[in-house]
Amino acid sequence: MAACAIRRLFLSVSKYKRRSHRVASVLEYNCGSDWTRTRPSCLHCASTSFQQTRFMSSRNRPNGNVLETVGVFEAPKQHGKYESGQLFLHSVFGYRGIVLFPWHARLYDRDVCPTTLDSLKTSLDHGSKEVKGKTHTYYQVLIDTRDCPYISQRSQTEAVTFLANHDDSRALYAIPGLDYVSHEDILPYSSTEQIPIQHELFERFLIFNPSKTPPFTSRDTLRAWQEKNHPWLELSDVHRETTENIRVTVIPFYMGMRDVQNIHVYWWRYCIRLENLGNEVVQLRERHWRIFSLSGTLETVRGRGVVGREPVLSKEQPAFQYSSHVSLQAPSGHMWGTFRFERTDGSHFDVRIPPFSLESNKDDKAPPAGYTL
């Protein structure tokens, strides 16, 4: 495939040792390839100390590339949250986006060791880790549709899926270009454009207001849409665990219940992100799921790869993300399992998928028939 590249230049002004630094970061997108970023360097002294960026090697650079000035980097927030209308670059997947509103989730990180002797003793007695959730901020965002074709580290452009509100109990529909982004994945920037993000919902949800910071404020339609769809959008729990430098993050969402031949069937979707935190190149080969239902059934699922792919995780492409769905004939259950990875020398190792609950404690009213406002 012939390479098709879009290169964007971000300029940032920062203070370092009482000297002003203009930092340039060139982003490249290659059709059928990964997005890459060259290491930002100071235009005055060639400093390469811009720490908020994940760097990737460049490749497939066609001649005649055109640089497009997009905006100015802002300092990432170490405390507090980003407001609705904040423009950002995703630090891992590289797309441009804009924040709609925040979610305050409970993060259950199994990599965090118990902090007290009692907690440590309890976890050792039960042969497992005691996990306590902590509040963590995520954001509902819109993805710029111009960047969607170049996000190769995901099985598809992210979308929020719903149960269709008609007789076909298995039918799903999706709102494309919606994503959930963790606070630390936000690289904020500003722009003078009145429509800096291309998405069909941008002008229906946000309006340009130069007297505000950021200069995009929520319309009443966004607040109404959030309230109407809250049960099906809400992000409440995030689960994370690392095995041999491969971190697995799982976010489950309840989708609703349907009657199938007088049997209640409950549906969930779950988003999984795989990250290679080390230097070794590995490839996902197999998945092994255990699905327990409150009705007493335990199902085992094995298969090659995930969603038809066997992604390679390397220093250049460290992450892969996908979404899938599960249904139970009970209002709650649990899922856990392993991913089998292969190293370059042919050896294999299993990576734990953190156990997570499937709960249907939301209002069981029918989800919306669409997102027409």
From TrEMBL:
Source organism: Pygocentrus nattereri
Organism placement in taxonomy: Eukaryota, Metazoa, Chordata, Craniata, Vertebrata
Subunit structure: Interacts with PCNA and POLD2. Interacts with SSBP1. Interacts with PRIMPOL; leading to enhance DNA polymerase activity of PRIMPOL. Interacts with POLH. Interacts with POLD1; leading to stimulate DNA polymerase activity of POLD1.
Localization annotation: Mitochondrion matrix; Nucleus
Domain ApaG: from-to ranges: 240-365
Main location: mitochondrion
Cross-referenced Pfam families: DUF525, YccV-like
UniProt entry keywords in alphabetical sequence: DNA damage, DNA repair, Mitochondrion, Nucleus, Phosphoprotein, Transit peptide
Protein name: Polymerase delta-interacting protein 2
